[in-house]
UniProtKB/TrEMBL annotation:
This is Aliphatic amidase expression-regulating protein. InterPro entries: AmiC_PBP1 (IPR039570), Peripla_BP_I (IPR028082). It comes from Methylobrevis pamukkalensis. It comes from the Bacteria. The lineage of its organism: Bacteria, Pseudomonadati, Pseudomonadota, Alphaproteobacteria, Hyphomicrobiales. One of its GO terms (molecular function) is amide binding. SUPFAM superfamilies: Periplasmic binding protein-like I (SSF53822).
């Protein structure tokens, strides 16, 4: 029997300020495509239509338009930043396509033409603050890359902290890719916050962590155990670049390579056996991989790649992934995911300190968040023995 070929657009930047994250996401998506195509039980094979916008956000819409109108694609796996995602959404809405977005973002968005598999603030920022505020204090310094993610995560953090009686000691932004951080670290030294919430990405994050490590060596009051850097977007990819300078700082994610579950062990064994991937795995790779596998399962069940039919399947049941069981809320099209809290090690991995008991339903508009919840810490994650 001849298998049908279904073209699927994959759009990630593998150069630019967040090149490492894009390369990992592309690796994950292509690994999943290879597994789907190797399964002779599938009545179709996926033809990956890969495009690289080169780190230029405005080019994402161009590549999405070309994939949907010129290459007959109906689904797009891709975009990392919110800037690039917002360039693609009007295109998929105009063509009736479906964007599979699999990365943490700032929330306050829904679209019938987007499936959100990454965490939103009640699944990453709130659990992080619930851990940090009672242990370190409620006077943070906020830093971020100068675009939507940094602005919005810091805005939400500031509102939650101030509503709970805390105070932000400072808030600064760096252009994407900027590495001149000396003035920033000096301001932090002078203001002496309780901790630093960092939404920096790529080379900016590396330069900041390295400079902060220098500050900690000269002033023990800035050691990670006393005034940590905490983040919703630090991954194993970042730790590989940062080296020992990142040790002791905290991050939240829906996946860490060190996650000790049967699903994760089997997943990493498959990656090593089939694709030769034996390096630490990041949430970027796993999220893109999982999105492709869910897409394939939904197409097989629906008997078509029609976006409406596929969306109906995806929002009707759960799917087993390396992240665990993933269910997408039909009302918001956001996935319920299970957050974890990790402490960075010098060898490039994370020790998992806490994990939620179960997946947390997405609340993209934070309509159910108690005003003082983050300061009070009344939604603790389960401590890992």
């Amino acid at each position: 029997m001849t298998r049908q070929t279904i073209p699927v657009s994959i759009i990630f930047s593998t150069v630019g300020a967040y090149a490492g994250l894009g390369r990992a996401a592309l690796d994950g998506a292509l690994a999943a495509v290879a597994e789907v195509n190797a399964d002779e039980r599938q009545p179709f094979r996926i033809e990956p239509v890969v495009a690289d916008p080169g780190g230029t956000a405005e080019l994402y819409g161009f590549h999405a338009e070309r994939a949907l109108s010129g290459r007959s694609c109906r689904h797009i796996i891709g975009t990392l930043t919110s800037w690039s995602r917002k360039e693609v959404i009007p295109v998929v809405e105009r063509h009736g396509g479906l964007l599979w977005y699999a990365f943490p973002y700032e929330g306050f968005e829904t679209s019938d033409h987007v499936l959100y598999f990454g965490a939103c603030p009640n699944q990453h920022l709130l659990p992080l603050l619930d851990h940090v505020l009672p242990r370190h204090g409620s006077r943070p310094f906020l830093v971020g890359s100068n675009y939507i993610w940094g602005w919005e995560i810091n805005r939400i953090a500031r509102e939650l902290i101030e509503a709970g009686g805390g105070a932000v000691r400072g808030e600064r932004y760096l252009p994407l890719g900027a590495v001149d951080v000396i003035h920033l670290v000096e301001e932090i030294r002078q203001t002496r916050p309780d901790f630093v919430l960092s939404n920096l990405i790529g080379p900016s994050a590396r330069a900041f962590v390295e400079a902060y490590a220098d500050l900690g060596r000269s002033d023990p009051a800035f050691a990670p155990s006393r005034r940590p850097i905490v983040s919703c977007n630090m991954t194993e990819i970042d730790l590989e670049a940062m080296g020992p300078a990142a040790a002791g700082h905290l991050a939240t994610a829906i996946y860490f390579d060190s996650l000790d579950t049967a699903e994760n062990r089997q997943f990493k064994e498959r990656l090593a056996a089939r694709h030769g991937m034996e390096r630490p795995v990041s949430s970027c790779l796993v999220s893109a991989y999982s999105a492709v596998k869910v897409l394939a399962a939904a197409v097989a069940e629906a008997g078509t790649d029609d976006p409406q039919a596929v969306r109906a399947v995806v929002t009707s049941r759960g799917f087993e992934t390396p992240l665990g069981m993933v269910r997408v809320d039909p009302a918001t099209q956001h996935a319920a995911v299970r957050p974890h809290l990790g402490r960075a090690r010098a060898d490039g991995g994370f020790d998992i300190l806490q994990s939620a008991d179960e997946a947390i339903l997405a609340d993209p508009y934070l309509v159910t968040v108690p005003r003082r919840a983050s300061v009070a810490g009344d939604r603790p994650l389960k401590v890992v023995p």
